[in-house]
Design a protein that fits this description.
Layout: H1 3-77
């Protein structure tokens, strides 16, 4: 190949390389946005699970108190 052919191929590939670089940067930004969105959603789900755990604990504590009172009442009658 002649030097002029190599130079023309190199110059022709520069816009392609710039286009690929821009595509990589855009994809990286979109992946960052997706990760942020997923982190937000998972944190929301974690918070909801924690709230449900607290609710179940309070309900189970109430049931435990009722059962304890009934058992105490049965023991007093016997």
């Amino acid at each position: 190949m002649a030097d002029s052919q190599v130079l023309s191929i190199a110059l022709a590939s520069v816009p392609t390389m710039i286009t690929v670089l821009i595509g990589i940067l855009i994809n990286n930004a979109r992946l960052g946005d997706l990760r942020h969105h997923m982190d937000t959603r998972f944190n929301e789900v974690d918070r909801r699970f924690d709230d449900m755990k607290d609710t179940w604990r309070s309900e189970l504590h109430r049931v435990e108190e009722v059962l304890d009172a009934r058992l105490r009442h049965l023991e007093e009658r016997a």
